[in-house]
Design goal:
181 residues, mainly alpha, two-stranded antiparallel sheet, two-stranded antiparallel ribbon
Amino acid sequence: MAAASDQVPFDPAVSSTLYNPVRPDGTYDDRVLDREGRSYAGRDVKDEALTGELIEDLRERGLLLRVQDYEHSYPHCWRSGNPLIYYAKPSWYIATSRLREELIESNETVEWHPPRVKEGRFGDWLKNNVDWALSRERYWGTPLPVWRCRAGHIHVVGSFSELAERSGTVWRTITAPTSMS
């Protein structure tokens, strides 16, 4: 079901309304059902035979608009060559778009070297600024100092001294990894 479907209400501000029936291993979970109520759970979303079954199921239920071959580029893992699956997941964002004008004004006060960066790469980035997703799930992503208890209370640690106070561990040095391998 598409996010815009009346049967699957979606509010991007409420993560519990996110409908993603695809598991991290690329198979459907038990929520995807055929016209007779049988589950497609465990079936690989890239399985060509399953694609045919899904098309036929939609056709028989009168839910199919059109079937059309469409050639397009598709992302693959740079290491293994396996196809990647993009799907919606809850994320943490910084609403940088709310500050766009203020950021552009502030950029005017910076003496850039080389000067072309001000209106070029950085200036373009500011003008086309979108909210920044900072909770990416990559090993080089931004570690977020967010603590959430089982009851759902959230606390964001604001400094190394607060982290030491709350964790009971004093960090003598804070260093970045020396390599990404």
